[in-house]
Structures are given as C-alpha cells and as structure tokens.
Amino acid sequence: MEPRIEPEAVVCLRSAPPQDLSIQALFESIEWVAPGIEIVQSHQPDWRFASASDPVADGGLHARLLVGPRIPVRALAADGAALEKLLSEAQVELVKDGRGIDSGTGAAVLDGPLHALLHFVRELRSCPGAPALQAGDVVTTGTWTDAWPVAAGESWEARFSSPLSRLAVRFR
User: Fold this and answer.
1) Which residue of 81, 94, 106, 158 shows the fewest CB atoms closer than 10 Å?
2) What's the pLDDT at 41?
3) How many Å apart are CA 3 and CA 150, to the nearest integer?
C-alpha cells in the first residue's frame, strides 16, 4: 500500500457553503479548524500512475485521518480574510523519530487552506451528480509538505505553529 503522511488543516462545516462563493462566505460556513494528519496510500508501485484518473479508479488515496484539537473559527478571526491570512502564514515541521524531515506553510496549498477549500467546492459543484457539502462535513485542505513514506515502528509529529497545535502518531 506504500502509506505516506501528510500534515494538513482540517475544517468542519457548520452549514453548506452558499451558492455565492467567496472566502468570507466559506468563513461563515465553517464551524472549526484543526491540525490534521492524513495517511494516504497507493496500490500503484512507487506511486506511479499512467494518468491523473488512476488514483480515482483505484478508490482514491485516502486511508486514515487523525484530527487534533478543534478550534472554533470565530475564536481565531473576525472574518474570512483574517482566518485565511492566519492559516496561510502558519507553519509546520514534519518530524520523524525526533528528526526534522520537512517543513511547509499553509500557503503551500493553493495559496492557503481557505483558497484550497474554495477551489474544491467550485470543482465539486461542476461535477454532475456530485453530492453537495453539508453541515457536519469534515474536509481536509491539502498537505503542507511533501507526502513522506511511513513504516511500522516509526513515530511522527506535525509541529504546527499557532493557531494549530502539535499532532503525533506512532505506527505499529
């Protein structure tokens, strides 16, 4: 399965995003944000795909999601622009067995997690028959670093800067 680790921001919706989409409209539809670690996997050796549709045909790449402490967005920012600035400037250090492996920022994901969510909602709406996002849906916004291979016996940490917090996982 060749699992890999990705540190990300995770959001939970308090309501479905409105038809008139903007960063502010997304802010108003988000309940909380949290640090996350997504474990992705591939059935294709060495993660090599013949086409971009191969991972979808294979059932997607998502394997597991760890969600850290949830922070109400209204406790972080007064509006969408302020939240996007806060998250896009936040940093993460990815640490394996106590040794720094990679680092990144929220801006690594389409200029920021809310921009990534905005793009996702627009693309989802352009797919005929795709279900709309609803209140209570949890969405990952994309990795802040490269995806790194993981193996049994390893301990990993995503050391996010404020406003997110550290999140750790050990593989057995």
Assistant:
1) 81
2) 76
3) 6
Chain centroid, CA 147 distance in Å: 12
| Spatial distance between the Cα atoms of 9 and 87, rounded to a whole number of angstroms | 8
CA distance 11 to 72: 10
141 membership: H or E segment, kind and range: strand 138-143
Tokens of 116: 């990534």
**What are 10's two structure tokens?**
């995770």
Residue 53's pLDDT is what?
A: 62
β-pair partners for 33: 11, 71
- Across the chain, what does the average pLDDT equal? 91
Q: How far apart, in Å, are the Cα atoms of 25 and each of 70, 93, 117?
A: 20, 30, 11
Q: Residue 99, Cα to own-chain centre: how many angstroms?
A: 23
Distance CA(20)–CA(114), nearest Å, equals: 15
